[in-house]
Design brief:
- It contains nine helices and four strands, in the order ββααββααααααα.
- By secondary structure, it is mostly helical.
- Helix 1 packs across helix 2.
- It starts with a strand and ends with a helix.
- The relative contact order is 0.15.
């Protein structure tokens, strides 16, 4: 471990590489915790008919026929919390931001319980590991590359806006062909964003002071970015490869 004793105070100041590793370890710890919470909540609601009934209308045969008002609220709430975290990051304390992040992960998991209704568990597991492999490869690529991905990130963000607009339009059209195209483009966009966000977080780790509240906040926001990259990549791949037979 690279250490540099400060001659005036005797305190230990870590070098840039150690700062980056420490910062990223916190980012991935927060991200892993969020994924575990989301997965547990999704499974809990999907496997408990009483809880599922709060979110969806279910007929006598146990088939889902629609989303309840609460279900719509749970679906939209994570988006609201993302905007809250992004807009209030400088005003919220580290503890408040952490609690908001955990609330986001919880609500996101509840909103994702539908995947256990639409897809077989084996398909979900298969696509999860596929997503983890792609995410891991691109995260390493983003960390190690010396190419500046800023321009790529701007293009990917434009692509993300296009995907959102196309998805909203397709909610009314219900085109399976458009859904397939959106899913393919989504995989490309979120694969690229993983590398871009990873490079951005590496640079952030070189600048932020380890152990401060600012570092905690930046780690939480970094975890949020990577969480969204992974979840969206997973959902796009699930739409492509996770259909029931």
């Amino acid at each position: 471990m690279e250490q540099h004793p400060a001659p005036a105070t005797g305190q230990v100041v870590y070098g840039p590489e150690t700062n980056v590793r420490t910062f990223l370890s916190h980012v991935f710890a927060y991200m892993a915790a969020a994924l575990i919470i989301s997965g547990a909540m999704a499974w809990l609601f999907a496997s408990t008919p009483g809880l599922l009934a709060y979110l969806y209308s279910v007929d006598g045969a146990g088939q889902v026929t629609g989303r309840s008002l609460l279900g719509w609220g749970v679906m939209l709430a994570p988006l609201g919390l993302v905007f809250l975290m992004g807009g209030m990051v400088n005003r919220l304390s580290g503890t408040a931001l952490l609690l908001t992040f955990l609330a986001f992960a919880t609500l996101m998991g509840i909103s994702l319980c539908y995947i256990f209704i639409l897809y077989a568990p084996a398909a979900i597991i298969k696509v999860f590991f596929m997503s983890a492999a792609i995410f891991g490869i691109m995260a390493v690529a983003g960390y190690t590359t010396r190419t500046d991905l800023t321009r790529l990130g701007s293009l990917l963000f434009i692509g993300l806006i296009g995907i959102i607009i196309a998805s909203v339009v397709n909610m009314f059209l219900g085109s399976s062909s458009m859904d397939y195209i959106i899913s393919i483009l989504g995989v490309i966009v979120f694969t690229g964003l993983t590398a871009y966000d990873m490079q951005k977080l590496k640079r952030m780790g070189e600048e932020v002071a380890t152990g401060t509240e600012t570092a905690q906040k930046m780690a939480l926001m970094g975890a949020l970015s990577l969480y969204l990259d992974f979840i969206n990549l997973f959902l796009m791949l699930l739409r492509l490869f996770g259909r029931r037979d």
